[in-house]
Backbone:
């Protein structure tokens, strides 16, 4: 199941890398994972960190986290869309546990 992880950001250079490292270490097939960074026009290197981790970057000018999430959802290609924030660190089995119930019903 292809999954898109949407992360809204703006000037999060100091915290985004921890988040992306944790996503990189998820126990989930990398070819089934897409990370979409929705950036509010950062001025601090946030976008460079996102690109370093191979994330897709899209921009938003709405100025709200809900608006950023909507833009991320519209610009994703996953069968499932999940959201997290730039200051979150995902446990290795976070995504696998999240999707367990869906797999049982497929």
Residues:
């Amino acid at each position: 199941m292809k999954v898109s992880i949407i992360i809204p950001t703006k000037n999060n250079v100091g915290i985004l890398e921890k988040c992306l490292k944790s996503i990189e270490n998820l126990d989930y097939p990398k070819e089934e994972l897409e990370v979409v960074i929705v950036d509010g026009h950062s001025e601090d290197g946030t976008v460079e960190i996102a690109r370093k981790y191979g994330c897709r970057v899209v921009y938003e000018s709405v100025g709200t986290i809900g608006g950023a999430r909507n833009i991320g959802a519209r610009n994703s290609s996953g069968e499932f869309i999940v959201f997290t924030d730039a200051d979150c660190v995902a446990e290795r089995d976070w995504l696998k546990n999240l999707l367990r119930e869906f797999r049982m019903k497929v």
